[in-house]
Amino acid sequence: MPVSKPCHVNCIVPPHLLDKLLESEHDEVRQAAMNTLLTTTRLRGERGVRALFAGAVAPGNGRRTVFDCKHSTFLPGAEVAQVEDGPPSGDPSVTRAFDGLGKTRDFYRQVLRRDSLDDRGMRQDGYVHFGRKFNNAFWDGREMIFGDGDGRMFTDFTGSLDVIAHELTHAVTEFTAGLAYHNQSGALNESISDVFGSLVKQWSLNQPAEAADWLIGAEIFTPEVDADALRSMKNPGHAFDNALFGRDPQPDHMSRFVHLPDSEPGDFGGVHINSGIPNKAFYLTAIRIGGFAWQAPALIWYESLKASDVETQFQDFADTTYQKAGQLYGADSTEQLAVLAAWQEVGIQISGVPVGLARVRSLAADRSDGAGREDGLTALHQQIGALAAQVSGLAKEVSSLQGSK
Question: For the Peptidase M4 domain, which residue ranges apply (predicted)?
């Protein structure tokens, strides 16, 4: 089983947003941000130890247990609040966490035929009311942790299904590719969690790709914060733009890739920032294919994740999605052409597919009916014919020059 190295606590709120809160004019906002950052730093050390035992977790048929931390950060002291087949809890945070764990488990089981997070029935444990005014939610390598938010900037993190599914998907990534949490592999790690976080929400709402909002964490900001969400897969770089957080720094094209230090202050090379590029590629793929994004697009991305490894880069993953689309749905199928055009639009050319040929083929992916594919092939044949004519002309010229000697 591949394991990501170095090990990290995978938090939903990126450090650059918490850093901005340290500049707030309100003492309580600054203090909450500082406490969140300090607690997260401490947990990173514990995460390395927990990862050593992650594979030793006994199978449990995906059974859920939600614990109440009662505002402590000492997990062993948390109390059981709700269990599988047990009575419902009267605590809304417990209920939301329990339901979110279940919907994520059921999505992977019913849609992708995956038996819990590790594909071996791993039990799912969630901890709510973690700390005081803790502005984050995270997967620590063994369980899901939810803060209540500070009530001023952030609300209870159990309130967003895509956040819950995002964090649990970090576990799926650990047990498949084990994508290293830094630079491009780390940004891809974050993107995979955004993709399946959004898909779990779309699946639970029975939404087609065109009807989805493609937002991550739309519910966790308080009403006084002028922001749509933490991230937008449809429009990376446009999730927020306000005096408090500044402008959403996510790029949507390789030409705008953000180079940051591979360190904690640098978000380990911008893993929460550059994830906007593969996020956009998935969104474009889903829209071009049409229908439900949790069907063909999800399967292509899931199979590509399983075929990836620790240091897979954007180019590697793009190439794999193109290959998997061809294996699953056929060469030059609507699905494969959609993948090709999507990566091309974010500035990544599929290896082995010449740029000119990719452009011709992508014409078919921009059409919703069969005419697009036919027109694309016609244009390809015309281009090949023109090239053949040029070669023939050059051959005649060479022959003529040789004959004149």
Answer: 100-174
Amino acid 389: pLDDT:
53
**SS3 string of the chain?**
CCCCCCCCCEECCCHHHHHHHCCCCCHHHHHHHHHHHHHHHHHHHHHHHHHHHHHHCCECCCCEEEEECCCCCCHHHCEEEEECCCCCCCCHHHHHHHHHHHHHHHHHHHCCCCCCCCCCCECEEEEECCCCCCCCEEECCCCEEECCCCCCCECCHHHCHHHHHHHHHHHHHHCCCCCCCCHHHHHHHHHHHHHHHHHHHHHHHCCCHHHCCCEECCCCECCCCCECCCEECCCCCCCEEECCCEECCCCCCHHHCCCCCCCCCCHHHHCCCCCHHHHHHHHHHHHHHCCCCCCHHHHHHHHHHHCCCCCCCHHHHHHHHHHHHHHHHCCCCHHHHHHHHHHHHCCCCCCCCCHHHHHHHHHHHCCCCHHHHHHHHHHHHHHHHHHHHHHHHHHHHHHHHHHCC
* Tens of pLDDT, residues 247-280: 999 999 999 999 999 998 899 999 999 999 999 9
CA distance 178 to 307: 11
User: For the chain, which residues score pLDDT lower than 50?
Assistant: 1-7, 45, 47-57, 368-381, 383-384, 387-388, 391, 398
* % of the chain beyond a pLDDT of 90: 69
* Terminal Cα-to-Cα distance of the chain (whole angstroms): 69
What does residue 137 show for φ and ψ, rounded to 5 degrees? -140, 145
Would you please indicate which residues are annotated as catalytic (active-site) residues? Answer: 167, 272
pLDDT at res. 86: 92
In this prediction, residue 8 carries a pLDDT of 62
pLDDT score of 228: 95
Domain residue extents for the chain: 10-270
Q: CATH assignment of 10-270? A: 3.10.170.10
